[in-house]
Amino acid sequence: MTQKLSPALYLIPCTLGDTPVEQVLPAYNRDIILRLRHFIVEEVRTARRFLKAVDKGIDIDQLTFCPMGKHADPALFRTYLQPLVNGEPIGVISEAGCPAVADPGADLVALAQTLHLRVVPLVGPSSLLLAVMASGMNGQSFAFNGYLPIGNGPRTAAIKRLEARAWSENQTQLFIETPYRNAQLHAELLQTLRPDTRLCVAAGLTTADEWICTLCVAQWKKKPLPDLRKIPAIFLIHRK
Question: What is the pLDDT of residue 49?
Fold first, then answer.
C-alpha cells in the first residue's frame, strides 16, 4: 500500500522547455505528484500537459486545479488552501522552473506561512541559478531584477543603474526580456555598458537550444548573437 502523503503545500518545479522530465527532475518528485489530488497552478493547460509528461497514466480528470496566474483573484487563495487546512496535501506548479521564484506562487506561500501550514519546496531546475552557475560571475552575491522598462530612456537608465551596482557592490545583476525582444535588448546593452563590463547570455537552459556565453562588452561587439527570438534567455552583467 502506498504511504499516505503528509499534508503540506508542495512546491513542484517543472521543466524549462521541451526537456524530458527524467533529465531534470528527481524520481522523488514523481512519487509526490502521483499522490496529489489538488493543484494550484499558474496556467491549467500547461500544468495538465506537464503532469502527463511526468506520467502518461495519470488520470487528469480526477484532479482539481485552481489558477494563480496574473488573471487570478488573490482573494480566493485562502479558499484554494482549504483542502490543506482539512489535511489534504496540495501541489503548486508554475509555467516553468520553480514556483515563487521569478514566477507566481510567493503570495500563496506567504499565506500558507501565515496560516502555519507546512510548505515543502521540491528540487528542480531554476533558470536563474543555472544561469549564475554557468556565467562565471559572482555567485556569492547576485540579484534578479525581472524585466527592464520597455521605453528606451527608462531602460537605458535601468541598465546604467544595474551596471553601477555590479561594479560598486561586486554583485551579479540578472534580468530577462520577452524572447522576441532579446536581440533588441542585447543591442542596447552593447551600446550602453562599459567596454570592460562582462555580459552573459544564458538561453534555452536545459533544452536542446541551450546556449551560454560570457564575454566583455568589447568582445561581444565582434561576436554575432544567435537567433533568440523564440528562446527564453537570462541576461547577466558583472564587473571585469
Answer: 95
Model pLDDT for residues 121-150, shown as the tens digit of each residue: 999 999 999 999 999 999 999 999 999 998
Amino acid at 49: R
Specify if 3 maps to a domain. Answer: no
Same domain, 149 and 75: no
Residue 1: which pLDDT band, with cuts at 50, 70 and 90? Answer: very low
Give the end of a domain, one of 87, 104, 121: 121
Whether residue 133 is found in the same domain as residue 208: yes
For residue 69, tell me if it sits in a domain. Answer: yes
Do 138 and 170 contact (CB within 8 A), yes or no?
Answer: yes
Q: Give the number of other CB atoms < 10 A from CB of residue 104.
A: 20
| Burial degree of 211 (CB within 10 A; 0-12, 13-18, 19+) | middle
Q: Check whether residue 108 and residue 14 sit in a common domain.
A: yes
pLDDT of the residue at 152: 82
Half-sphere exposure (Cβ direction) of 170: Cα atoms closer than 13 Å:
3
pTM: 0.92
The enclosing domain of 168 has a CATH number of 3.30.950.10
* DSSP state letters, 9-70: EEE--B-SSS--HHHHS-HHHHHHHTT--EEEES-HHHHHHHHHHH-TT--GGG-EEEE-ST
